[in-house]
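Hi there,

I know you've been waiting on this one. I reran it after we fixed the sequence typo, so this is the corrected version. Both the input and the resulting structure follow.
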Amino acid sequence: MAVAAREKITLECTECKRRNYMTEKNKKKNTERLEIVKYCKYCKKRTTHKETK
């Protein structure tokens, strides 16, 4: 049985600190924390979202 390389992560807005998005990443290929610009419905604008624990 193979071990899954994909891991579920939560993305948090850097401005309002709300956790808006759930996604997956390959933990073997991407060891550093993910940082993406996405739309925040609470700030009503595009902001940087960072991976949380």
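Quick highlight: DSSP finds no helices and four strands in the chain.

Best,
R. S.
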